[in-house]
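explain this chain.
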Amino acid sequence: MSRARAGVLVLGTLCGTFGIVRQVYADDGQYPNFGMDYTAVLQNDFSRIDGAYPGGPRNTNDFYPDITTSFYLRFSTDDQIRFTTELNPAGPPNQGEKRAFGDLGLVVNELNYYKLTSKTEWMIGKFQVPFGRAMDQAPGLYTNDFVSAYDLGGMLGATFGYRHFSQKLGLIEPDISVYTADTTELSRTFLRGGSRAQRSDGGPANTGELNSYAIAVNWTGIPALPFLELQGGYMRNRQGVAQDDGTQPADELVRIVSARYMWARLPSTDLDRTLAGSYLDVVPFIEYADVDNEDGIEGNDTRYLTTSLTVDYGPWAFGATRTDKRRAYAEGAGRYDYVNELSATYNITGRLSLGLSAGTQKTAGQKADLVGLALTYAGAF
């Protein structure tokens, strides 16, 4: 796991969670109070390297838990302290390894103070930078790792958002974040003796100063197209120190634009009606990201295009996703990488779901077949 970019796994590993489970907050109305919500995933990932692989084992299997837990100290309905941890494998399995519950570690993803008002919200501490949507909105198991170049979690700093609504334009929400990579004790991987991150590790935003920033604008509730969601954003991550690997550091620049639309045949908030199979919606999504100096390496320019389609029918959710990545040409590897996947999720109950995803991936010229199965349970108190 990268020290400078928490939660980012090496491309080609299959360590992810299936979908995003909406957080549920249990609150008794008396303050201050304490609460918790959690998502527990038991997942098995299988990958098979393409037949052209020159020697060595071709099959890799990883069976592991991924447990995310958030604790809340609430001072009112609108302000709270949040502490989020995640237990999962600290690193990917070796090629050809058959691993079960191996290399588990506990990381701190969030520790922050959050405040909400009628028009603003802000957060200070360790947080996930609100930038980009492909990692959350595209269905399946593998896309969130593939687009990790602009998925910044575990940063130290602050974020501020403002909501403006008008009858003509709908809801416009700009967010601005300033941050730096975490090199405190909170950057350790606990339960396995991991050391904390260092400035000498280099990488994007690893400067020790609040001089990296991201700006994102979300536009929703447009009167003419009320189910259309748009986002545009710009991110600048200041360069870290140079590494002894022959590369030169440079500021990482990311520009994104995305659109998501939902068409529902029978709009309904009745859970019984939905689970009975009388509800149908279709959700197309597209996101383009233009990255200069990815990973803070000068000249490592990349482009990402993610397209997906999700169909929800009663307790079922079906998805198809493709992400194309364009990078610098490499001999024997070409210029293009990609990941394709088809997925299906069955909501057994309101808290328990079973997901299956299968696809193909090409990274640095190497192709692989991917199959993942995930059992997810979510709860709160």
Notes: The chain has one domain: 33-380. Confidence is low (pLDDT under 50) at residues 1-24. The chain is about 5% helix and 55% strand. The helical segments are 134-137, 143-146, 271-278.
